[in-house]
Design brief:
253 residues; mainly alpha; Heme Oxygenase, Chain A
Length: 253
Amino acid sequence: MTPSVNHDVEKPLLSESEFIAGFHAIGEERYHHKHPFHLLMHEGRLTRGQLQAWALNRYYYQSRIPIKDAAILARSEDPLFRLAWRKRILDHDGDGAKPGGIEKWLRLVQATGLAREHALRGDGILPATRFAVQAYVDFVSTRSHLEAVASSLTELFSKKLIVLRMDRLRAHYPWLSGGLDYFTARLTQAPEDSDFALAWVVKHARARTEQDLAHAALRAKCDILWAQLDALYFSYVNPGWPPPGAFQPAKES
């Protein structure tokens, strides 16, 4: 008689190096640095109106980052974790004496030629942007604390993209140069944040099921970022069909 096979046997725990390598493999495959919208941006092939649409919709995402981080912060009973994580909120909201990332992104919006009030009011934000951003806030609020922290690990890959983006924006869109302070700050903030988050996730993923959930959380975050760019590409590049109520770029000569 052939013995039955137990398909429910837990997979072996990944080594620390294997676990970390899994995050980097996900980033190489799924991070939005390969999205066609970003490729067009880096090739200098976006119009001012398309860049305005990007800056405007991305502002909505930026404005929800402190809310997302506050949700993660509120779930922790560890004062050392809270002390480290609240830095992220200050980085984006500012401390009252110096501007944070949200204010700096508003300056980027202005550099594209749009009024800051346009972004603050949320006028013309794509419905898909709202859905994707809310999905991120919901994810960190309802999944396990481990998954919530792991979803932030897209920051492992952001520095390389920011360096490229700053170089290409200055080269192809020099009129944006005065609005790039957000990216300059993230060159140091993002690695600091990702180093802490990665070490925390590695320490607290003690079973293979938890390691798999952490990897899946990063995939979900990459999907959320990709979906936002999908909406921009569909609405403003090809076929170029912004939905009713969405931002309408001025006709270009």
